[in-house]
Amino acid sequence: MLRNRMHVLLDRQRGLELPQCSDIFGVRGLGFLRRLQLPEPDATLLREQLALHDLIAQQMKAQEKRIAAEFGSEPMHRHLLSVPGIGATLAAVIACEVDAIERFNSAEKLCAYAGVVPTTHSSGGKVTHGRLLPFCNKWLRWALVEAS
Questions:
Q1: CB atoms within 10 A of CB 6
Q2: 45 vs 47: CA distance, rounded Å
Q3: What residues does each domain of the chain span?
Q4: pLDDT surpasses 90 at 76
Q5: Of 105 and 130, which is predicted with more confidence?
Q6: Cα–Cα distance for residue pair 18/15, rounded to 1 Å
Q7: The model's pTM
């Protein structure tokens, strides 16, 4: 929401040339936004939004460090970190939601618990696959979808 508000401020400016960068909120883009001279009241609003963005980024980094320190020594957390797309935060969510992996008899049972397998209906020799399972662990599914 904060980034959307900054995009609105930038879109209001006629003829503004944004830098060629992959992310306006990356290092290069934020440097451009800090140096940008806008007319009032947009300049004040942008400065306030940037200060809030910096504060949130600082708090997120502190929380990520705390999560990594708390969960970093667990074996399951280390295994999850080896999967591409899974960082410290998502690994902690997945590890907490799965709890003990031994409670699942097979990988299929874990996938069903996570709700990442489609429903299957079969009748009269016809098999159809439908939507994802609606009754599942929502946080585990969310973490796996975010990682993918």
A1: 18
A2: 6
A3: 2-70, 74-147
A4: no
A5: 105
A6: 10
A7: 0.63
Distance of CA 126 to the CA centre of its chain: 38
Query: Alpha-carbon distance 27 to 31, whole Å?
Result: 6
Question: 118-123 and 126-132 as β-strands: parallel, antiparallel, unpaired?
Answer: antiparallel
* Distance between first and last Cα of the chain: 23
| pLDDT of 13 strictly over 80 | yes
**3-state SS, residue 22:** coil
Residue 133: pLDDT above 80? no
- Helix/strand/coil for 144: helix
DSSP-assigned states of every residue in 6-26:
HHHHHHHSTT----S-S-TTS
pLDDT the model gives residue 122: 84
Please choose, from the candidates 105, 65, 104, 108, the residue with its C-alpha nearest in 3D space to the C-alpha of residue 88.
65
Rg (CA), the chain: 22
